[in-house]
C-alpha cells in the first residue's frame, strides 16, 4: 500500500470516528482509530537528548492538569524565562569552526555512509555577527517561539492584566542582549498592541556590583566543584561514532572530542534551520550520551551538585516568596522576568525541584533520572509560580495555594501536595521553602558594599524607554551592547 492509500485510509478512519463520536450509545464508539496515542514518541525525540542547547519542548508531565482546578483561579503569576532559541555563542563558535576545519582538512573527496550529506551540507552561520543572538529563521526560531509564548500566556494569564487601569506593568530582564530581546518579544506577544504604552521594561545589569539585587547573582567565592572540572568528552559512545565515520570514509581520522563538537554544533542547526542532516548520522544511544554530558554539566557546574548554587538560587526563591505573601492586591499580579539557563537551574536547586536523591554518576547514566536538562532548561525554558485563590471543595479548604510549573508541567512537592490540583497551601509553602533556603549574602560572602537583597521588584522604573531597541546602549558588565 502506497503512502497515498494509507493517507486515504487514515482520513476515512477519521471520518468514521468523527461521525460516531457524538453518539450516546456505546455501540457507536466502534472505531478504527485508537483515540489515545500509543506511541509516546517524545521519549525518543531528539529534543530530549540535547540538553539545553536546542529547541524548546515542554517538560514531560506527571499527568496533572495544567489549568487550575475548578475551584481555583490564578491571582498572581511569577515567571522567570530563559532566552529563546539562539545561535552558538562566539566562544563555542571557535571550537566549532576549528572542528569543521579539521573535518574538511582530511580531503575526503566523496563523502560516504552516514556522512554522505556532507557532499552538499553547509555550515549554517551566515555571518559572524549572529553568534550569541536569538535565531530568526525556521520553525524553532527564538524570536518567534518567544513571541508565541507571550501570546499563549496572554490567553492563560490575560485576566491578571487590568487594561482599564493606567497602571504600568513592569517587566524585568537581565542586561544581556539576547535576554533583553527575549523580554521584548515576549512582552509584544503578551500585551499585543498595548505593549509600548502599558509596559516598563527594567533592565537589570548583570554586573557583580549588583550583589543580590540581580537576576544573575553570582557567588564570588565559588570555585568549580571537582566533578565539574573533571567532566570529559572522551566517552566510549563518541569513540564508536568516530570509528564508524572513519571506516566509512577512508582518510578520515576523527576522535571522540571531534564527535562531541560535531554533535554540539549540529544541535544549533535545529534552532536555525529546523532540521539537521547530522541528527541521523548519530545513533539514539549516542544522543543519549550527549544529553547526559549536558545533564552532568548543569548538575555539577550550575545546579544541585554545586553547594554554592543553592545559595545563588535562594535570592529569587526568597524574594518570590515575599511577593506571593504580599499578594496581588498589594504588589500586583504579573511578574515576568528574563535571564539565562544557569540563573534558573540554581533556583530549582534551591527549591529542591528535580533534584535527584544521589549525585549523578560520572561513568554511567542513571535510569530513570530526575535531572535531564532537556526536561529542565531547554532554550526558552521557564519556571512559573502560580498563586491560586481557591474556594472550598468537599476535599479542600478555601484559601490561597501555590503551584510550581516547570516548562508547562505542574511539579508538585513530595512533602506538600494536599491542596487542590496537588498544590501546596501558601502557608505551608512559605514554611517549607523558607526552611530550605541558605542565606546568599553569608554563604557567598558577598561584599557588604553591594546590595544584600533583591529589591528591584519593589522599586522599579515606569519608563517605557527600554521597551524597544533603539540606538542606545545596554550596559553589561562594563561592556556595551546595542
Ligand atoms: C469562588 O466563589 C465565589 C462566590 O461564589 C465566586 O464568585 C468565584 O467565582 C469562585 N471562584 C472560583 C475560582 O470558582
Ligand atoms: C490598549 O489599546 C486599546 C486600543 O488602542 C486602547 O483602547 C486601550 O486603552 C489600551 N489599553 C491600555 C492599558 O493602554
Ligand atoms: C582529538 O583531536 C584534537 C585535535 O584535533 C585534540 O585537541 C583532542 O584532544 C583529541 N581528543 C582525544 C580524545 O584524543
Ligand atoms: C499544611 O500543613 C499541615 C501540617 O503539616 C497539614 O496538616 C495540612 O494538610 C497542610 N495543608 C496543605 C494544603 O498542604
Ligand atoms: C528573604 O527576603 C526578605 C525580604 O524580602 C529578607 O528580609 C530576608 O532577609 C531574606 N532572607 C534571605 C535568606 O535572604
Ligand atoms: C569590597 O568592595 C570595596 C569597594 O569596591 C573594596 O574596596 C573591597 O576590597 C571589597 N572587599 C572584599 C572583601 O572584596
Ligand atoms: C531606574 O532608573 C534609574 C535611573 O536611570 C537607575 O539608576 C535604576 O537602576 C533603575 N532601576 C531599575 C530597577 O531599573
TrEMBL record:
Active site: 83, 341
PROSITE patterns named among the record's database cross-references: HIS_ACID_PHOSPHAT_1, HIS_ACID_PHOSPHAT_2
Any GO CC annotation of this UniProt entry: fungal-type cell wall
Enzyme superclass (EC): hydrolase
Cleavable signal peptide: 1-18
SUPFAM superfamilies: Phosphoglycerate mutase-like (SSF53254)
The EC number(s) this enzyme carries: 3.1.3.8
InterPro entries xref list: Acid_Pase_AS, His_Pase_clade-2, His_PPase_superfam, Histidine_acid_Pase_euk
Keywords: Disulfide bond, Glycoprotein, Hydrolase, Signal
Disulfide pairings: 72-390, 416-424
MF terms (GO), sorted A to Z: acid phosphatase activity; inositol hexakisphosphate 3-phosphatase activity
Gene3D superfamilies per the UniProt record, alphabetical: Phosphoglycerate mutase-like (3.40.50.1240)
UniProt family annotation: Belongs to the histidine acid phosphatase family.
Protein name, UniProt field: 3-phytase
Organism from which the protein derives: Penicillium atrosanguineum
